[in-house]
Amino acid sequence: MFRTSRLVATLAVGAAAMLALSACTSGATGDDAGVGAVTEGKLTIATGEPAYAPWVIDDAPESGEGFEAAVAYAVADELGYAKDDVEWVRTSFDAAIAPGPKDFDLNIQQFSVSDERKQAVDFSSPYYTTTQAVVAAGGTDAAKATSIADLKNATIGVASGTTSLEVAEQVIAPTQELQVFNSVDDTVAALKNGTIDALVTDLPGAFYVRDAQLDDGVIVGQLDSQSGGDDFAFVLPKGSALTADVTKAVDALRENGTLDQLAAEWIADQGAPVLK
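and the corresponding structure tokens:
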């Protein structure tokens, strides 16, 4: 009985050691191999559900229409993947940047890079830096503006403690004193009731204000300043073997002008021109 128990114990220890060794080597060919692809031969890209314009048109990233959908396919091409080899999945924003295993190789849904988030996930180099934009109520003089000069005499609102205030002062320099509110929602309320003619907020927020908070909102245009803008980048699983290659692909697209072309096509030309 004693000998049998010792044999069982010895076998159990050996099995545990083999499992530990297997866990250390599974999915990698060396210490630097990193986290591998979800599906071999495919590039699995995630975005939000739903995904909104101008980032994804009609909530259909597989169409390649919309700025982030187009960027995703451009990166896939740089990595050597055909369009048919790209597979899309959906995740929430918070789940994508939380620690733990992922069901995607890349995730693109306006993730700004931060040191805190880098503790849980990898980031590529940025594919877009946010700008500030002007939103007005339809039918107003501000909504008809086509230049910075057209906004000089408008009553403009901003949320306190935001980059919007600084950029509005520097770029528009309105003759009327800027109206400062406690939050973006308060600023939107002031626009609705006619207290202000227009508001300034970051471009992603501007699309949300126009499409979700106003019945007749108009994005007058972007302000030509990246002061304080957020850098948007792909999120990858922590330790992904693809991080360096995705960064290289994004850098190449920036250097050859593709990112600027896609931003012009899917952001500026979709109702957010850069005001001069």
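(Above: one complete record from the training split.) The CA atoms of residues 24 and 30 lie 10 Å apart.
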